[in-house]
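Box 3.1 A note on notation
Throughout this textbook, protein chains are presented in two layers. The first layer is the amino acid sequence; the second is a token string describing backbone geometry. Keep the layers aligned when reading.
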Amino acid sequence: MSASRTLLASLLILAAGIAVLAAATDGFRAFTSETARRVAVREHPRALPPMPLQTARGRTIDFIGLRGRWLLVDFIYTRCMAYCSVQGSEFARLQDRLAGPIADERVALLSISLDPSHDGPEQLAAYQRRSGDRGVGWIAARPASPAGLEALMRAFGVTAISDGLGGYAHNAAINVVDPRGRLVAITDWYSPGEAERYVLQGLAQ
């Protein structure tokens, strides 16, 4: 094969590879499954199922009952001493920074347990206390059934894998739910200011 033909063949292969990569990464915007999840949610908000949750106070709520306000949602388990502890402290700080709209019932924070068989109301309440809960605007809850947990994890795109030691490896994030009950954004767990800004912009519209 001549040099020109070799070059042409190489260019065609390269072009085909670029096309495949573009399709797989949503136009080069998503280079990981987590990024792809965030892009998909931003462009196509997801309606959340009316799933019952038991709170740290023993009450039963669901996402329908929380509509009308912005929600910042994270997934935790109370025995976690790593990410979940940091997330809890950040949610307590968000209670301060969003105190006004929380008091007006326009914003709420929601932590959902990935370990409902262990995390009953007592454990959830203890987790909030350890994190510095300010006492208003932050709900810690567990799904009322295993099927409920699976449905919520599918809706939010959360993956959790047992680590064999009683804990879980899971994709941590702060999920933003709009007043219509739709998941509209996913932000970094270590950057609560990003989620806060998103909510404040929504409130200003």
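The mean pLDDT is 85. The first strand starts at residue 46 and ends at 47.
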